[in-house]
Amino acid sequence: MQTRSWNYQDIVSIVRNIAKEELLLRFSKIKSSIKDDGSLITEADLAVQKRISEDLKHLDEDILFLGEEMPMEMQHDILQQRDKAIWILDPLDGTTNFAAGIPYYAVSLALIENGQVVLGVVYDPERDESFIAEKNAGAFLQIADLKYERLNQNSDDIKLADAVACIDLKRLPEKLAMKIVSNHPFRSQRSFGGVALDWCWLAAGRFDVYLHGKQNIWDYAAGNLIFSEAGGNSCTFEGGAVFINELTPRVGIGALNSALFDEWTDWLGVIRSK
Question: What's the pLDDT score for residue 114?
Answer without folding.
Answer: 93
